[in-house]
Amino acid sequence: MKKPLIGLIPLVDVERDSYWMMPPYFEALEEAGALPVMLPLTADEGALAQILEMCSGLLFTGGPDADPALYGEEKLPACGLVVPRRDEMELRLFRMALAADKPVLGICRGIQLFNVALGGTLWQDLPSQAPSVIQHEQKPPYDQPAHKVSILPGTPLAALLGRAEANVTSRHHQAIKALAPGLQAMACSPDGLVEAVWMPDKRFVWGVQWHPEHTCKTSEDSRRLFAAFVEQCV
Ligand code: MN
């Protein structure tokens, strides 16, 4: 049986002028029965249409901050590096994926990108704009949980995990500020950040602020999340 092909948004190293990928993204998808491939960095509509046709699902990976101009804000000094070529590719590909109702999973930057694409806004820098006792930028080891999230009842994440709470990793200095219309929250951190979203009218559009790919070896929750995604990628 052929494995579902899942396209990964490439990581971009501007300094080294290179594209790259972190093994845990591949490993998590492979262990869930998929065949992951890294996509080229392109915003060409024809190329993206072909990619969409070829792939059974798309993984929107972690990465740099989205350009605040995309949600109508001036870039603050504490906002990180932006990579406009990635923003352009991902916004276009995400919208095309929605139109085609392709399964998509967004991780870290991914959930933020979905929110921006659908008209929401982001905290450009949590430590300075929304200080909290919760540690959202954990120190290594990155496969250990950093904080809890409460899972909203009635959401597919609650159905998947069968619990009202989960322990998650946390490596982000940005987060959803105003949740976009169209997205619904599935999990929140104790300080009130939306850390997981879904789109009820789509086959599988899920975003998580944490990094389940780092905890597939230790967390059944993480394995279930990837399995749920890959199951929809047929
Ligand atoms: Mn967090």
From TrEMBL:
<dbReference type="InterPro" id="IPR029062">
    <property type="entry name" value="Class_I_gatase-like"/>
</dbReference>
<dbReference type="InterPro" id="IPR044668">
    <property type="entry name" value="PuuD-like"/>
</dbReference>
<dbReference type="GO" id="GO:0005829">
    <property type="term" value="C:cytosol"/>
</dbReference>
<dbReference type="InterPro" id="IPR011697">
    <property type="entry name" value="Peptidase_C26"/>
</dbReference>
<dbReference type="Pfam" id="PF07722">
    <property type="entry name" value="Peptidase_C26"/>
</dbReference>
<dbReference type="GO" id="GO:0033969">
    <property type="term" value="F:gamma-glutamyl-gamma-aminobutyrate hydrolase activity"/>
</dbReference>
<dbReference type="GO" id="GO:0006598">
    <property type="term" value="P:polyamine catabolic process"/>
</dbReference>
<keyword id="KW-0378">Hydrolase</keyword>
<protein>
    <submittedName>
        <fullName>Gamma-glutamyl-gamma-aminobutyrate hydrolase family protein</fullName>
    </submittedName>
</protein>
